[in-house]
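Section 3.1: Structural characterization of target chains.
Under the original work plan, the team committed to producing a structural model for every single-chain target entering the pipeline before any wet-lab resources were allocated. The record below documents one such target. The sequence was received from the expression subgroup and is listed exactly as submitted; it comprises 176 residues.
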Amino acid sequence: MSSSVRPTTIALATVGALATGFLAYAVYFDHKRRTDPEFRKALKRESRRIAKAAREEAEAQGAQQKQAIRQAVTDAQEEGFPSSVEAKEAYFMNEVGRGEALCQDESEHLEAALCFYKALKVYPQPGDLITIYDKTVPKPVLDILADMVAFDGSVPVGNSFAAGSDAGGSPGAVDD
C-alpha cells in the first residue's frame, strides 16, 4: 500500500498556513500598535501627512474651480446678451433648458451653472429667479452660480442669494 498525499490535503494545508501567517501578522501588528510608542508616532505622522496632502489637494481644486468660474463669467460677458424682449425670452428658455439637462451630470456642474447664470442675466427680476433656483437647482450647481454672481457683481439679486452683497443689509440698521 502506498500512501500518497491528495491534492486537496496540500491545498488545505497551504490555505491554513497562509491564514495562520496572516493572523499572526495581524496579532503582531496590533501588539506593536498598542505597545510601541515610536510605531504609534509613525502611524500618526503618516495619518497627518495623508490628511495634509488631501487638504492641499482640495485647496488646489478649489482655487482651480474659482479660476474656471471667473473665466466662464468673463467669456459669457464678452459673448454678450440679447437686447430685444423676444430674443431675451428665447435665450432665457434655451439656457434654462440646457442648465436643467446639464444638472443631471455631475461632471457638467460648471456648465450648468453657467447656463443658469446666463439666464439670470437676461431675466427682468433676478431676485425672483434666484428664489426659484434655490428650490429647484442642486446645491453644488447653486454654489457655483453664487460664486458667478459674486464675481460679476452687476446682477441685482437682493438679499436672498449673495449674503455678502450690499443689498443684504436692512435700511433701518444704522450704527450710532
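The two ends are 109 Å apart (CA to CA).
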